[in-house]
Amino acid sequence: TWTSSNIIEDQVAAIRAQVGDKQVICGLSGGVDSAVAAALVHKAIGDQLTCIFVDHGLLRAGEAEQVEKDYVAATGIRLKVVEAADQFLGHLAGVTDPEQKRKIIGREFIRTFEAAARELDAERHIEFLVQGTLYPDVVESGGGTGTANIKSHHNVGGLPDDLQFALIEPLRTLFKDEVRALGAELGLPEEMVQRHPFPGPGLAIRIIGAVDRHRLDVLRAADLIAREELTAAGLDRDVWQFPVVLLAEVRSVGVQGDGRTYGHPVVLRPVSSEDAMTADWSRLPYDVIAKISTRITNEVPEVNRVVLDVTSKPPGTIEWE
Ligand code: XMP
Fold first, then answer.
1. pTM (2 decimals)?
2. Strand order of the sheet with strand 166-168?
3. Is 144 annotated to bind ligand?
4. Assembly and interactions (predicted)?
């Protein structure tokens, strides 16, 4: 019968047999899958694993710290952090087209990861790459296994020929809820294990308009309030995802105290879904929405209006870009 501890024991044995005394790398994204996959591999082979975290500067409030501090504290994993926010924001400057944003982020991600992998390879010859592929990913991509490419959560191709690694995919037979159970059993931080899905291109596709540091800060502040209030209301598990979107090119008139404001709207986009292929807008209690709205307009000076997206998917997508 299926239990988390059975799976862990089996996988630990399998990983040890596969890896022997060779060196392994794993890219962390801040998401559940890579975090659990790496923790499992670390349990099996300890310091033969090195993780790489590319901080592209597009994560939500606290997420980079969660990887760099809480995750490392919980697992003892050796982590190489690449601070790449300047690089990503430099290439994104002035770009408004959603697909263009994705392309740039995907390209820079591969470049950066590859450079970090090369550096590590020079230090200690690397033979394996861990990927957090789940069973639904396997089915979706036709079931093949192979060597070497970074999981296409940025929808991009593989590593170059001279940087080939064999894959370790310890979550290949598992569904998301099983992976979460495994993560909890491995002692990972609750916020990380229960994290809602979050797109690879991050907040860049939740700013409608060009991305810059100031806009990211504004969106982060609003997003954090929405997440805090959802959690405080005990509704995290009722919602599949809760994007908060900054309409950075739109302004509307408002009033605050004695003065007129001319600020930006944010859109709340809480959705319910099974698999993100279809979705419905979440019927959050009005008092929760009211609290989020009041707090955002009080605490984030650039935002003077909060609107609720009541579109299902289809015809709307979950993300706005
Ligand atoms: P849409 O917006 O198409 O999103 O309804 C469906 C699911 O996919 C996520 N999403 C992405 N994930 N890279 C990703 O890794 C992307 O470019 C991307 N675009 C959308 C979205 O958050 C939702 O879970």
1. 0.92
2. 78-83, 49-55, 23-28, 126-130, 166-168
3. no
4. Homodimer.
